[in-house]
Write a structure and sequence with these properties.
By secondary structure, this protein is an all-alpha fold. Helix content is 77%, strand content 0%. The radius of gyration is 18 Å and the shape is globular.
Length: 310
């Protein structure tokens, strides 16, 4: 278990060093506020889809299909439970703040931080499970998440389906199910672009953290409470709920790690779009990202211990 704790700590530390590069660049004006959205668009529209396609360039087998279906079933069940769990939270806060905090507790940074962490800690094999979880995340995020932030009238099937994460996954799944392997030239290009996901995502997150008002963050009981729920309660709940089902170790560890990632950066974007509490959303993203350097190694080690991987 100690070895696994050190492994996860090392990989999380590596990710935070990459974030530090983005933080310093933003503080020194080398990465401007106008440049961050452009880098985010590159990540969302090119790099992330390429990473997902590349992850699915594996041989299709009945056992692998069954494992992916089981992963999807568990992920859907977990998100249903998460959605029910957040309903009574933050009732005393103003409605815009309450919605932002509940959204932030529910939705973690699965694509930008979770998948790179799974790849670094568990290897490329576990990326198939991470990809499945990302599909479920996007389905809930663009349906229940939109309802939570903006109301039922804001839900759009087009937005839920035609986003880069889903399109990249669908492309990868079609190739996977048809048994199509990309030719070397295209496969290498997709692989190289996909490999940019971890460093580019970390630099963007670091640059976003540079704009946070850290003094006000640590004076807000609501933000600290939401951080504890996101980083401690949700992954612990996930570990306990999954334990009786005894998923194979890579799947169990993937689901627990992805449950413990910090609040998704899309929280602030949705708050802006649907006129909710933007400052609180951005502060929650920043503080959970910072504190996750302490919590993720602990839950990674716990998952390994409970699954028998350690």
């Amino acid at each position: 278990m100690i070895d696994y704790l050190l492994l996860v700590s090392s990989q999380v530390g590596t990710m935070f060093l990459m974030m530090a590069a983005g933080f310093v660049m933003a503080k020194r004006g080398l990465l401007t506020p106008s440049g961050i959205p452009q880098m985010t668009n590159l990540l969302l529209t090119v790099v992330l889809p390429c990473m997902l396609v590349n992850a699915l360039q594996v041989e299709r087998t009945p056992a692998l299909l069954g494992a992916m279906g089981y992963a999807a079933l568990l992920a859907v069940g977990l998100y249903i439970i998460y959605c029910l769990f957040i309903v009574p939270l933050f009732r005393r806060q103003p409605a815009p703040t309450s919605k932002a905090l509940r959204f932030g507790v529910l939705y973690g940074n699965v694509g930008f931080m979770g998948l790179p962490l799974v790849q670094l800690v568990l290897g490329d094999g576990a990326m198939l499970y991470g990809t499945v979880v990302l599909v479920v995340f996007n389905a809930f995020n663009w349906s229940q998440g939109v309802v939570l932030m903006g109301g039922k009238e804001q839900v759009s099937l087009k937005q839920a389906v035609l986003n880069p994460g889903i399109l990249g996954t669908l492309t990868g799944l079609v190739l996977f199910l048809l048994g199509v392997t990309l030719p070397p030239m295209a496969g290498n290009a997709v692989g190289f672009l996909g490999s940019m996901n971890t460093p580019l995502a970390m630099i963007i997150i670091g640059a976003q953290m540079a704009a946070a008002d850290w003094r006000s963050i640590f004076r807000s009981p609501a933000i600290l409470a939401a951080s504890a729920l996101k980083l401690i309660v949700i992954p612990l709940l996930t570990a306990l709920l999954l334990y009786p089902f005894h998923p194979e170790p890579d799947l169990y560890c993937t689901l627990v790690l992805l449950a413990g990632v910090p609040t998704a950066s899309i929280t602030a974007m949705f708050a802006q779009r649907y006129k909710q509490d933007v400052p609180t959303s951005a502060q929650l993203v920043a503080v959970t990202t910072l504190l996750s350097i302490l919590t993720l190694p602990c839950f990674g080690a716990l998952a390994a211990l409970l699954s028998g991987a350690a």
